[in-house]
Amino acid sequence: MKKTLSALLACCTASAVLLTQLPGVQASAISARTLGDTSLDGTISIYDASLILKMYAYRACSMESGLSEEQHDRADTDRDGQLTLGDASFLLTFYAETAAGMNPSWGIEEEEVPAAPDVTVSLSGINSPYAVLIDSASGEVLAEKNGDSTIYPASMTKLMTAILTIEHYPDLDTYITVPAAALQSAWNQGGSTAGFSAGSYITVRDLVYGMLLPSGCECTITAALLICGSESTFAALMNQKAAEIGMTGTHYANSSGLPNSNHYTTARDMTRLLRYATQNDTFREIDTSRNYTTTNGLYFSSTLFRPLLNTYGTAAVTGGNILGGKTGSTSAAGICLTSFAEIYGREYILCTAKAPYSGQHIQDARTIYNRLGAALS
Known about the structure:
The protein is of the alpha+beta class.
């Protein structure tokens, strides 16, 4: 078995080097960390080799995005970070097909997505000057209002930080410690906090709930520091993911959405982000929660569901229910909401931005989802 694994390692490493020689792959872009030593311990592991091969395969064929959830499962079926014989065969087949100028099939039959319903949804009379409504399954835009205009995302940014954190940690029940620097940074910038103290010993799951429900900036900054060592490096990771999922009008400068002139997006891009994130079951479980109690006893309630239920008494809209989402609010961004709802058995995603007063983002979401439900009935 050891000889077999050694041979696979040699094959993966050699393939990574070959990939760097293909058009469009910059050898200078290879860092010591990514080129086969992710733990910086002077050795190359099976997992390191897997990462190398996948990364350079993507670059070689100029893919705009990485593996889908289903493809990720196929490339690493047990999700344990180990490269099995089957994984290696799959990855090397992908490389061989790419190098030969073929479009890799991945061996997966793509499920046919039913076309979006042919409906007209009016956005007239809403409070938000920016809005985009899409069909989640197909990604087709059903209605828009200044959808490609630049907006500030405020705490809707935390959708990106949350999905990156979930993707980084295979086990969300891993314990971490909230650094004092994260609290200090959040306080210095006047950001909202979830209530964790410096030194709090909590799970990553607690951290993600803290981002999405009470919108804690100390949670997003903690994730940035733990994953990348600094917010600026984490912002680069956010921008990389944004490019992968087609967020062409977005640039991130921090993990929380605190004001920065170089931190912006569009309503269309926000729907793309939530569409991507809701394909992850763990994200869906957290983002659709109305409340949560952490391992150290903090109680969180959702900044979406608390005002929604307090004002309207229900998450129901015509033909269905609002399922989840993320609010945002700063003086520059106004009052924002990116949400998703199920209506007559099909999911839709809506972003509204820069409503002038608190509560109008939820009012707009209800108005638009009700209009959609009426049009579908």
